[in-house]
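Hey,
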Amino acid sequence: MVVTELVLIPMTFLFKMDKIEKKEYGLPPRKITNKNNLPRAIMNALHNDPYTKGNSDISTTQLIKPVRIVKYEKEYKYNITEDASDLIFSLVGQSVHHIIERAVADNDIAERRLYCEINGWSLSGQFDLLTTKKELIDFKVTSAWSTLDALKNGKSEWEQQLNVLDYLAYKNQYDVDTLSIMAILRDWSKLKALTSTDYPKQQVVMIPIKRWTRKEQQNFIEKRIKLHQLADSAKANNYEHIPVCTPKERWRKEDKYAIMKNGRKTALRVLDNKNQVKQYLKDKKLIEGKGCTVVFRAGEDTRCKYYCNVNKFCNYYKEESVEF
């Protein structure tokens, strides 16, 4: 029987799990504030999150996550605070499990957690749906913009996740032929669908995911596990061997220069550097300060600034990132 203790503090909900359960399933305590005074039902739903990575050393989600973030989440798990308002999209995404329950046909397999030992660690991952046609499908509640971007440019996190799950399925003797994401668009607009040529025409979009070779899958998993193991062995506050998140992982936006024309709200052009600005002004016979201005837009690490729940513990964020 799971033993829980629920403590109510003004503006704060603190949820503690029994020590034995935390050790087995790796569930950190959650300290969730309620700065915007959301209804108690929302707070209850956030704390009653059924997710578990099972009895494993690392989950698929953690495997593909930046190594530094995973390390900080482990190291400072008792000090991490999140606000309920920042978790609503995550909460809505969990509703997909009810959709999956209703989607399963005869002989389909849904929400199965699989395990595999790699380099001395137990890796786990749970797929959403494996159909009788051997289609491995992951459901995502996401935005229309993210879906369009994934269709045009791919999405590395989704590709990595599905290929890791495919490898786990293979190691557990499940047959898979294709990988795909079922994107459910939370902000889909019928009006935009009618008026835009490239906007999704329906609220559910199937996105095929590139399937790697078995060797590519294995190499990726082994490399990622070794990186996490190296980080895991680092002593507290000695993270010199833990790589800083890459610009892509930080969702880095680089510096830009906007050419603004007097009386116009939107930029004529947004360029990457000063040389491009000079050339544009020359080509268009424009003179800065005479009818137009050049506005510098400083870049930023979007994930670090707005979406990382351990940024206050990270030396990159505090010392080396852009001025926040």
